[in-house]
Design a protein that fits this description.
- The structure is a single chain.
- By secondary structure, the protein is mainly alpha-helical.
- It has helices at 2-15, 37-47, 69-79, 82-93, 98-120, 122-126, 130-133, 135-138, 142-171, 180-196, 199-227, 238-257, 276-304, 309-333, 335-346, 349-364, 368-371, 375-393, 397-426, 449-465, 474-479, 484-507.
- The longest helix is centred in the first third of the chain and has 30 residues, at 142-171.
- It is globular, with a radius of gyration of 23 Å.
Length: 509
């Protein structure tokens, strides 16, 4: 493997002049050079139309995706899945009514979608994957912290996606003939097959996979309306209400903003001439609207459990999958309702594919030797991890989801805080201050000391402001809810600004 990558590096130097302005970019044909195991695996992958590229920079001549529509449809499919229905239900479980939950969903998802859309604009500008671009903000080694957190995010979200789908499939039989582990396995294997083929096939699948789920969610809304079980509840007031809004807002933000860690992965084949404002707009709209819609469906479903014993019993027995079963099957659509549940469960693949694909890319940014392992191997590893975590998650899903999404909101707050300061304050918001030829050279990138200090500051904010089932910080007790997200963001900005100024003065980079 090592000798082949040395050949790739040599090939880059020889062809630097022929690829205008793109030295250190790697051509597709460079991945299959040599006779080692690495080269043989890459040739096998190339022969079967599997993507061979990992975290290496894409040369401009290979960025041929000129349409922004696939970039938009990708995010629709990734977010229009049943996991979002479960996220929308969390606020009611925290004691909120329909209206305050709805306003929280709109506000916090809007902020999160803007952060993801902004990150996506760096893909065409650089031809680099998200965790590789991160090296310019956090340093070569500091970016590894966020790569690890991003992998945890990918694994956790895939567990949530597959668990809800398994709940639905498990509910379809009165004898529960399909065990939870089998439902999890079905979803993860489908996602594994698709992501093996890489960028183009994932985009192709996501372009259409959201349509059946979109239709079925309207059917769910219709059946809820016909049942007469929907209620808005009573709008609360006071400190307890404010605390619940903050806690639910953290969950909502974490559910959407987590995409920021992979945003540019799916636009690296867009040419650098793409207008950033156009890419930002289509990404924002195609994330925000599906998320608003699907979480609203979940919110409406959970509100109906307050007036229907059938809905409440099914929800208690089998989570959100059981609740959707109660809405669509008994005293409702019968076998057609079962069909809708199967299709909706399978649509979860659309939300699992991005996590499966990007997990391997994050792995390749940790150590150089990991980059020398073909991406298809990391895809297989991530699938095994998803299965191993999703199955035990099934049996304590609600608690797991709330805690996980809260914690994910903390790391994304850290990510965005440092990124904003570095890009706009220290790099003046200009891509002219990014030397894209040094993306893989640790001694030319920020030293990471400021990043480590900022992370420590952010963690301090999290600890004092978090409100979890297993720990509540002192400031969270005063606020009456989870303010770890806000404190983490603020502490990280303050800590990084000062530390980075000192770091730049000393290291000159």
């Amino acid at each position: 493997m090592y000798s082949d990558l040395e050949k790739v590096s040599s090939s880059e130097e020889k062809t630097a002049e022929s690829v205008v302005g793109v030295s250190h970019a790697v051509r597709n044909e460079d991945f299959i050079l040599g006779d080692s195991l690495y080269a043989r695996i890459q040739r096998w992958a190339n022969k079967h139309s599997l993507e061979t590229r990992g975290v290496e920079r894409v040369p401009e001549e290979e960025r041929t995706d000129t349409s922004l529509l696939p970039a938009g449809s990708f995010w629709i499919a990734a977010n229009l899945v049943v996991a979002g229905i479960s996220t929308g239900s969390v606020g009611v479980n925290m004691g909120l009514s329909f209206w305050d939950s709805l306003l929280t969903i709109i506000f916090f998802n809007g902020l999160a979608a803007a952060g993801v859309a902004w990150n996506a604009t760096f893909g065409p500008k650089t031809g680099l994957r998200q965790m590789v671009i991160s090296r310019y903000w956090f340093g070569f080694h500091g970016a590894k912290i966020f790569a690890i957190l991003n992998m945890i995010n990918c694994v956790g979200w895939s567990a949530i996606n597959t668990t809800v789908a398994a709940q639905m499939l498990h509910s379809l039989s009165t004898t529960h003939a399909l065990p939870p582990w089998a439902g999890v396995l079905i979803i993860t294997l489908l996602a594994f097959v698709l992501t093996l083929f890489g960028y183009k096939v994932v985009h192709m699948y996501e372009k259409y996979s959201w349509i059946p789920a979109f239709i079925i969610m309207f059917i769910i809304i219709g059946r809820l309306a016909i049942s007469g079980n929907f209620t808005t509840g009573t709008l609360g007031v006071g400190k307890a209400e404010a605390g619940s809004v903050l806690s639910f807002g953290s969950v909502v933000f974490g559910s959407t903003a987590g995409w920021a860690g992979i945003a540019s992965d799916y636009v690296v084949y867009q040419p650098k001439t793409v207008k950033s404002w156009k890419l930002f707009t289509i990404t924002f709209v195609c994330i925000a609207l599906p998320v608003f819609f699907v979480q609203l469906v979940g919110l409406a479903c959970i509100m109906a459990t307050q007036t229907s014993a059938l809905y409440a019993d099914n929800y208690g027995a089998n989570g959100m999958g059981g609740l959707l079963y109660a809405i669509l099957v008994p005293e409702s659509l019968g076998n057609f309702g079962r069909f809708c549940l199967v299709v909706l469960a399978l649509s979860t693949v659309g939300g699992t594919c991005p996590n499966t694909y990007s997990f391997g890319l994050s792995m390749q940014t940790l150590f150089d030797i990991f980059r020398r392992v073909p991406r298809v191997i990391w895809t297989l590893l991530s699938t095994c991890l998803f299965v191993g975590i999703a199955i035990p998650t099934y049996y304590s899903f609600e608690e797991y989801m709330e805690d996980f999404l809260d914690i994910m909101s903390y790391w994304v707050a850290l990510y965005l805080a440092i990124q904003l300061v570095e890009h706009y304050l220290f790099r003046k918001g200009s891509m002219a201050n990014y030397d894209l030829d040094v993306y893989d050279q640790a001694d030319q990138l920020p030293p990471s000391a400021a990043t480590v200090f900022a992370v420590a500051c952010g963690v301090a904010g999290c600890v004092t402001g978090m409100s979890q089932t297993w720990y509540t910080g002192k400031l969270a007790k005063l606020a009456g809810g989870d303010i770890g997200l806000e404190l983490c963001f603020g502490f990280a900005i303050i800590g990084f600004t000062g530390a980075r100024a000192l770091e730049r003065a000393y290291f000159r980079r």
